[in-house]
Amino acid sequence: RHPSPLHFTHAEAQRWGSCLVAMANSEEQADELEALESIFPENLSVMSPTEFKLSGTADGGDYDGVDYVASYNLHVKFTPEYPEAAPQVNLVDTTGVLDEDEAAVTELTELIAETIEENIGMAMIFSIHSAVQERLEDMLTKQRDAAADRADVAKQAEIDAEIARYTSGTLVTPETFAEWKAEFEEELAPARQEFRRLRATTVEGKLTGRQLFEQKKIKVDSEDALTDKTDIIVDTSIFDDLDLDDLDLPDDLDGGDAVDAPS
Known about the structure:
By secondary structure, the protein is α+β, with helices and mostly antiparallel strands. It has 7 helices and 4 strands. A 4-stranded antiparallel β-sheet has the order 1-2-3-4. It starts with 9 loop residues before the first helix and ends in a 34-residue tail after the last helix. Residues 218-223 and 253-263 have low confidence and may be disordered.
């Protein structure tokens, strides 16, 4: 006799099916967690077979002494239906730009939801982590570039201001220069007239240097003319106040004959 086949009610069949699916899902979850531990040995913090945190860091470079870096954790909980249903994934323990910009956190949260939707039915935590890290690096890079652009704009503004300082005003042309020169000469005319008047008053009644030279010049033809033909006139009045008795004169002059002036 053949054994009689097992008979299940519809409800029992559903329960058995659910158990089989849960077992399969559990195996897939365990396989995924094992793979994540192999890929991220330093970044994975496991709390249970169905709950863990996966940390990530994004680097957008540096500019002017500022490092554009941020970090985060993906807090993951597998549901019994995962990967056939969405897991619970939250962005936590954020630093850097994610602590300063709510819009950035919102953008990454929406990105997580989109990535989950695109990967239903397969292991997806690695894909979520990669998408978040890539988007965050892009945000940081844009922040760095924006800072560099602002600095460039400020520097260009300084250059433009310096150029304007040297180039502002009326452009000099032959016509504008002639107009300025005429105005300048007109303004200077009274000062020139006053200068001429003062100069004329100062030298009035006085001989010029040339006139003084011509009136007092000495004609010397030769040493002979100076020695033999020029009369030497001595003004003796300059000696009136001298006591000649106290002078130590040579013997041939002391008490001697007077010296005749040459004729």
